[in-house]
Design goal:
four-stranded parallel sheet, 18% strand, alpha/beta, 10 helices, three-stranded parallel sheet, single chain
């Protein structure tokens, strides 16, 4: 593996990727984009294009299909995107699909999203300004799954979010192995 490798990732995976890098003693360049760019697809595309324009032997993108253009952007910059549709599926692997079969109306909380729920969800989608939006956004959900990757202790925060949303909470104990496996597939 070339150390002249860029890993461009959504900030949702920051702590998990840093743990993987440290554990494997990898010295790749890590660049994280603000997860709030998901709320502005044009900005996300611009940032992906900007960051991938650099000269590296390898360029790895750690994102799901968070933009309809992401695979086209990766191809344009000779970058490889890890396998996965979105962050919950990337972290949980096959377990995500099992959970979806059990209850399609599930809202998934990654550790970063759980930790920053107020800023990223309540403020990011203007629920704080327009409280009626909460019901519009969440009325079809039946439960919340918090994906505990074992890095931060956010169980209590997840309980508070589920209570706020009026949804049943499931805490899914995971780790970083699914993310690491998908990263290794493209390295």
């Amino acid at each position: 593996m070339s150390e002249d490798t860029l890993i461009l990732s959504c900030g949702i995976f920051q702590k998990e990727l840093m743990k993987i890098m440290e554990y494997n003693d990898w010295k790749f360049d890590l660049v994280f984009l603000n997860p709030l760019f998901h709320l502005d697809p044009k900005r996300l595309n611009d940032e992906l294009n900007n960051k991938l324009a650099g000269k590296y032997d390898r360029k790895i993108v750690v994102y799901g299909r968070c933009s309809p253009e992401i695979d086209k952007i990766c191809s344009k910059h000779s970058a490889e995107r890890i396998r996965g549709e979105h962050c919950a599926e990337i972290l949980l692997g096959e377990r995500f699909w099992e959970l979806m079969r059990e209850e399609p109306g599930t809202y998934y909380l990654t550790p970063m999203l759980c930790k920053n729920f107020k800023r990223m969800v309540i403020k990011g989608t203007f629920i704080d300004d327009y409280p009626r939006l909460k019901n519009l956004y969440f009325h079809n959900y039946k439960k919340v799954v918090y994906i505990d990757t074992g890095i931060d202790d956010l169980d209590k925060k997840a309980v508070n979010i589920a209570d706020y949303l009026g949804l049943e909470l499931i805490i899914e104990r995971s780790d970083v192995k699914n993310l690491e496996k998908r990263l290794r597939e493209v390295l």
